[in-house]
Here is the input.
Amino acid sequence: MRKLDLLKLLIYARGTARRDNECIPSRTHLQKEMFLLLKETVFQKEDWYKFVPHYYGPFSRELDYDLNELVASGLVNESTGFALTPEGFKDADALWNTLDQRHKTALSRIKERYNRLTSEKLLDYVYGKYKKYNVKSAVILDNLYIYFDSFARENDITIDDLDTAFNRIRHSVNENRN
Here is the structure.
């Protein structure tokens, strides 16, 4: 099976509405659902998409490219999330019928479990369980900026004071490493 086929199957799988081709609400959802499919199910044994830390947790450029290819080819509609077009549905239905029950169940469970979550709740789950993918997180960085800005205002500290403190810490850590 090709990676594009797996992507079509994820979009095709039933979600909480219990109907085939339930729309995946956003690119963030699609990226995280595929990531979780490959980390937490029978699909983890395969070499599918490579994920790296990115602004909103694990991200695969190849998956994003494949999704864009499916949209451009007219197999996926992205007007209100991501759903298969009639042509894409027909193709995915044929693929679905070649899967064993374990793989069908894995696809449907991922979609049922995570498709209904808000983006914030989905990111909370992924960030909590897969911490190594948080290092570039825009959400976490935004929260840090808000925290330190608030801390500085409450304590009448300037940004330069914080910068000096961080530089001292950085210098101290580097000395301890040597």
Q: What stands out?
A: The beta strands are 52-54, 57-59, 76-77, 83-84. DSSP finds eight helices and four strands in the chain. The radius of gyration is 21 Å.
